[in-house]
Fold:
Amino acid sequence: MDLKGRVVLISGAAQGIGRACAKILAEQGADIGLFDLREQVIDTAQVVQELGRKAAWAIGDVSDPAQVRDGVEGIRRNLGHIDCLVNNAGIVNNIAPLAKMKDSAWEREIAVNLTGAFNMIRAVIEPMAEKGWGRIINMASSAARGGLLYQVGYAATKSALLGLTRNVTLEYARKGITCNAILPGLIGTENVLAMPPAIIDQAVLATPSRRIGKPEEVAHLVAFLCSDGAAFINGTEIDIDGGAHLNTIVLGSQKESQGRRGS
Ligand SMILES: NC(=O)c1ccc[n+]([C@@H]2O[C@H](COP(=O)([O-])OP(=O)(O)OC[C@H]3O[C@@H](n4cnc5c(N)ncnc54)[C@H](O)[C@@H]3O)[C@@H](O)[C@H]2O)c1
Structure:
């Protein structure tokens, strides 16, 4: 993928999938804007600079429109313009049965996962439209389709991101902007790899490819969607989950099913 001359803004870039996107896109020639709540975003900027690309960062909360406006403006001043936005910042704020979900947890998940993406889009889209070229990628989740037990706020916001994606396409496609959603299955970020092994084993068993994904694999899809070659892919939802979205019975070896019979 040739992303030379492109500037890509990534939210939630201090670690995980966001950091992998910064690295892979920089390797393919893009300069990178980074927006995150945490100072570790500076380490990601360093990774980008070590690859010979420009990086600019802002520390802020995607749910706060003023912080987004100021942060994005600073990044734009630094890097000249913004061609692509990767709305990657996202949280799981509470894992609980619906009846016990705290109001504050529900509200925070909506504020970060949904309103955060809306704020970021509003901060970049008009200059993209004036230029007649832009790419917006919303990081949803396989939970957007299948739900996620005891994560009602997270799953609902990820489904809502699909609606946001479609509407951006309807409004801005004729101005040269594409907007697409990515639906990752379980991806082996630092946080995911620190989860109890039993959870990962369950995800592996439900995945035809028999493994979880790698952050770099999501980043390569992001890079393609940012490229000229993806110009006619618009308003769509792309699963990246080793086939787990097929949601069918995957016949495993005897060892894999040991202890699961009758449960
Ligand atoms: N890892 C997975 O298995 C997986 C699966 C499906 C979808 N996703 C989605 O991919 C995205 C990245 O996931 P990840 O696993 O790398 O997450 P992560 O928790 O490792 O990283 C998320 C980043 O977002 C930042 N962030 C959180 N709230 C923010 C806010 N209010 N403002 C600015 N930055 C904020 C964090 O500081 C962090 O750097 C998320 O949207 C997540 O929902 C992840």
In short: The first strand starts at residue 7 and ends at 11. Residues 259-263 have pLDDT under 50 and may be disordered.
